[in-house]
Amino acid sequence: MLSARRRGKNGNKRVGEMSLREPKQAWERFRRAYLSGHAPAGQDRYRAVFQAAVNIYRELHDLPPFRIKAIPFDNERVRFLTKDDRDRLIAAYASHIQPVIIMLAFHGPRIQTALQLPWGVKGVDMEREAILLNHTKNAMIQSVPMHPRVKEVLLPIWEKRGKPMNGHVFLNRFGEPYKDTRLGTIPGSNPLKTQHKTACKRAAIDDFTVHDWRHHWASHCVMASIDLITIMHMGGWKSLKTVQRYASVGTGHMRESINRLN
Hints:
By secondary structure, the chain is mainly alpha-helical. The protein has helices spanning about 5-15, 25-35, 40-60, 85-90, 100-105, 110-115, 150-160, 195-205, 210-225, 230-235, 240-245, 250-260, and strands spanning about 125, 130-135, 140-145.
């Protein structure tokens, strides 16, 4: 998969000479000339990068944001692991990555939401055993109880650092905070991609992206008989429609639910 930077270079090579005052014409020219053989999902990623690049110019010139209608594509992927596969994959990550992955597996945040979590009441509050998840993509901030597995892995880190009330929870192998790729108008690549690929190879797990940890979490929430409204709020989704894809992940959990009726 091409990075946002590569997509930007490809676009500039083909429409770079056109005026930024004609962004719609430039986009249509680029799409016809270069994207005709791309899948809709790939075209939409190019659209997002193109739109973001144009909006840098428009922001500098006090112009209103430019919008291109999103290209519809099937975004209904649902991929989850068994509990055994989950634990085997977590163990296959490098030690400094494992706490992040446990957060993804048991709370389901987006990657950067997790990586940028601070200690304290605005993030990981070890004293209250709660996590404030800032779901920036949907402008939602949701406080959720901390899962015991997450507490188990974060408590020693918190204590070792002197029980801080601020600063990043998760640090890279150099002991530094991860770069927040959401801050730039054009997002960067996933900082966990390489480590995730290596871990999947070690654990013999196929067809499981790092973002699939979010699908895994939501799917297991359904199988634990957690209602979709609660999953929607905890996961930071804006609409129930997005969460409904997980409603049919399995039927085994339904037996316990139906047996509650009397």
